[in-house]
Amino acid sequence: MSGVAHQAAIPDAASQRGAWPAPLWVRRLGLVLFAAGFYAFFLHYTLDGLASWFSSDDLMNLHGSLSRLVPDSARGGKVPMPVVGWDLIRDNLVFWSAHQRPLGATFYHTVYALWGFNPLPFRVVALILISLNLWLMFAIVRKISESVETAIWAMFLTGLHARFVLLYYDTGMIYDVLAFFFYYSALLYYLHLRGSSKLAELSSDASFAVPFRCRIELERDCG
Questions:
Q1: What is the DSSP letter of 95?
Q2: Which of 49, 68, 82, 167 has the fewest CB atoms nearer than 10 Å to its CB?
Q3: What is the pTM of this model?
Q4: What is the DSSP letter of 173?
């Protein structure tokens, strides 16, 4: 086989990655059209969730975000006290405290403080966060696979699923939505740093390794 024929038989790097053989503006237009079409499809099946009312879990979560039991040395036992903004900030910073799920409590407390006892704002904020999670999933798959097509397939397979119906209708699932948002936001930021020189600079800083070291120690103690 001649050298020219041999080179023609070897696929280039772009074709191996599955890149679109189209101009950049065509690829971007196609991506925008897909995003608009998919999100319209997504809203068609999830907008009904905005009409959901509070569940019993929501009432419990809302009550826990507005008041808590504190020791009363004068009377003995515990008495309910209102929760203020500083309490929630402290609980989120001191995440090892006895107060459970402070970020979700911040969500309930903040939405209630702004719009009162109305389920619609809770559902709107939850839907916005779920929409951001869709973008995070697309961006992470795109970053890892280096393929827009793979990210699109990931959106088709997991972006809208019957198993996630509680996310679309139940505000009590906000804890899972918030966990996904912050966990994968950190992962996307890490993937961004991984492709730059900043990761090497951060890795030389001892503070960068502290959360990972704490996690290792916790797993070792629990294991």
A1: T
A2: 82
A3: 0.74
A4: G
